[in-house]
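Our preliminary data section would be incomplete without showing what the modeling component actually yields. Below, a chain of 340 amino acids is followed by its predicted structure, encoded as tokens that our downstream tools consume directly.
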Amino acid sequence: MASAPRKTVLITGCSEGGLGFALAEAFADAGYHVFATAREPNKAASLAAGGAHIEVLQLDVTSDESIAACAANVRERTSKAGRQGLDVLVNNAGVGFIMPLLDTPINEGRKLYEVNVWGMLAVTQAFAPLLLDAKGVVLNISSIAGAVRMAWQGSRHPLSLAPLHMLIPLLAPPRAPGPRSQTPSLPYLFSSKFSLDTNWYPRTLGVYNASKAATTFLSETLRIELEPLGVRVVTAMVGEVATDFYTHSTATNAFALPPGSHYKSVEAIIGRQGAGELQKNNESADAVARNIVHDVIVGRKGQIWRGGVAGTAKYASWLLPTRLFEWVLHQGRGVYEIKP
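Predicted structure:
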């Protein structure tokens, strides 16, 4: 007797070294047929070597033509394979940008929103008919950066996390045995431009964090609107993850604030954050991906918190007074060292 066709998942932003790449492998290992997409497919080509159950497709989330072509392609391929619709859509593609808000070029901010916010919604709209056919799942990869207010960007400075880590025994829920680690993370400020296919978490407060806050609210609103139609929506609030994200960012010695910036006195600190030198609490991309895939498979919906320090950020932001939490997060990040 012929075996039933595998369930299907499409993932955006699958360049090698990123969370999307790890999610593609994790879904394939869980028995799915994976459509791994990237703006430049050659950057995800090695996924195809993993077997017949991963196909690499071209998809630029900022191009209406590219999105429509990919949706038509997937509809044809799933139909030929005997599947009805698309079981899971993962909106993972994203970019970052490091710069204080006062120094951020508005056009750069608009470009970031095109990818992180409108790109996510455009892809969801295009694949909605397939998701409705399958009564499927939308998984939106957001960030704790969209839940916690923080200046600049970068990675967490060890000094800023040390006080927070003392709260972990009180704030974090007991960790269940097995792969389901629940660790939250915190948001950041500045940021330099990062790869379209390298999704990122708390990398920049300002514009990046605002885009992730928008992503989170859009995702949670989609959850409410799609549930009556039989589609489940999961919002992954991702913390610190070990990826190649920083290899796509501006090197520390290349980061420079514009002439006349009010933040010149802390330029070096912002540059180190943007280069990832201060990030100390990463979880591996493979581990985070496996946990997220498990959450999807077991039927979770709404917000899930995964990655380094994610759980702590979740509970600390809820339990601690706002000003105290902000003070803890900004220790060692240059905010209190600014010399006007």
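The radius of gyration is 20 Å. Confidence is low (pLDDT under 50) at residues 153-164, 166-170, 172-204, 249-253. Preliminary results of this kind motivate Aim 1 of the renewal.
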